[in-house]
Every structure is written in C-alpha cells, then in structure tokens.
Amino acid sequence: MTIQLQLKPEIEARLIAEAAAQGLSVEAYLASLIENSLTSHEESFFYQVSTQEEWEAILTDLINSPAFSLAPALSDDAISRESIYTREDEML
C-alpha cells in the first residue's frame, strides 16, 4: 500500500533523523511506528475491556488469595480517624 503524507518540514526532518538513528529507511521506520502503535492498542488494560462481572470475579479471587489470609488484620487504632489525620494535615 502506498500512502502520501504532507508533513511540516520540522516533522519531516525529525522523522528522517530518527530513522537514520535507528539505521532504517524512512519507510521502514514509519512502518515500525505504525505496527507498534496498532499493537499497543490491541494490548489494552483489563479495566478498559472488562465487564462488571469480570471485575467482581478478579477482585473476589484477590480477596480470597493466600496473600490476604496471611496478612494480619489492622487494629481499630490503626484505622482510627486520629491516626489517619494528623496535626500536620490541619496546618495545610
């Protein structure tokens, strides 16, 4: 496929320099940029493509994982308002 682009002169110069730095022709460099861009869009984050049910299943598995069962429970004092908000916070 042949595609023609009208680029600003400074963008064209930068493109040529980047291609030369990679040891590629401008065409090969552009093709690799496009392929990488399209591939990265295919590898979307889980939160972007998952349903509510999938989220709930993953979070349930996480909660029931051995890592959580081995962790000690926090004391009431550790999660009290006084321990979360300190005097330094009041000065801000």
Topology:
Blueprint: H1 9-22, H2 26-42, H3 46-49, H4 52-63, H5 66-70, H6 81-84, H7 87-91
Description:
- This protein is mainly α.
- It is 66% helix and 0% strand.
- The chain has helices spanning 9-22, 26-42, 46-49, 52-63, 66-70, 81-84, 87-91.
- α1 crosses α2.
- It is elongated and about 65 Å long.
- The model has no long low-confidence stretch (mean pLDDT 83).
Strand content: under 5%
Q: Average the pLDDT over all residues and give the rounded result.
A: 83
Secondary-structure-based class equals mainly alpha
How many DSSP-defined strands?
A: 0
Largest sheet: none
Helical content class: 55-70%
Give the C-alpha Rg. 26 Å
User: Which blocks of ≥5 consecutive residues have pLDDT under 50?
Assistant: none
* Number of distinct helices: 7
What is the rounded distance between the termini? 60 Å
Written as H for each helix and E for each strand, in order along the chain, the element string is HHHHHHH
Anisotropy-based shape:
elongated
